[in-house]
Amino acid sequence: MKPFTYARPNSAAEAVKAFAAAGRDARYIAGGTTLYDLMKLGIERPEHLIDVTAIRGLDRIETGGDRLRFEALAPMSAVAADPVVGRDYPVLAEALAKAASQQLRNMATVGGNLLQRTRCLYFRNGAGNPSSVGVYPCNKREPGAGCAAIGGLDRGQAVLGQSEACTAVSPGDWPVALTAMDAAVEVLGPSGARAIPIAELYRLPGATPHLEFMLAPGEMITAITVPKTPAGRRSTYHKIRDRESYAFALASAAVALEMEGERVTRAHIALGGVATRPWRATEAEQMLAGQPLTAAVSLAAGRAAFAGARPGRHNGFKIELGARTVADALMIAARRSA
Ligand SMILES: Cc1cc2nc3c(=O)[nH]c(=O)nc-3n(C[C@H](O)[C@H](O)[C@H](O)COP(=O)(O)OP(=O)(O)OC[C@H]3O[C@@H](n4cnc5c(N)ncnc54)[C@H](O)[C@@H]3O)c2cc1C
Question: Is the CB of 70 inside a 6 Å radius of any atom of ligand 1?
Answer without folding.
Answer: no
